[in-house]
Amino acid sequence: MAKIGVNVKLDAQLKAEFEAFCSELGLTMTDAFTLFATKVVRDWQVPFALALPPSEARTDSPATSGKPSDLS
User: Fold this and answer.
1) Alpha-carbon dihedral angle through residues 4, 43, 63, 59, given to the nearest 10 degrees
2) Angle between helices 12-25 and 29-43 (to 10 degrees)
3) Could you give the CA distance from residue 44 to residue 16 in angstroms, rounded to a whole number?
């Protein structure tokens, strides 16, 4: 299978910490992102919960107001 490049912009400190974490596991960052992408595609969901803390949840969003979103 042909491989293509993907660019990801990260904060410098986050990148350094992520590289250190991957290194401890014997992985490269490419390996880690490939594992993540493979898991997402296989299960058709992200492998962790995505949520806003209740204090930050918007009660006026289209999802809760029943009004269509104006994304134009």
Assistant:
1) -100
2) 80
3) 29
Rounded-to-integer distance, Cα 58 and Cα 51, Å: 12
SS3 state at 39: helix
Q: Which residue has the higher pLDDT, 2 or 61?
A: 2
For residue 66, what pLDDT is reported?
Answer: 53
DSSP 2: -
Q: Using alpha carbons, select from 4, 7, 39 the residue that is nearest to residue 15.
A: 7
**Is-above-0.70 flag for pTM?**
no
Where do the domains of the chain lie? 10-50
User: Tokens 């293509």 correspond to what residue?
Assistant: 4
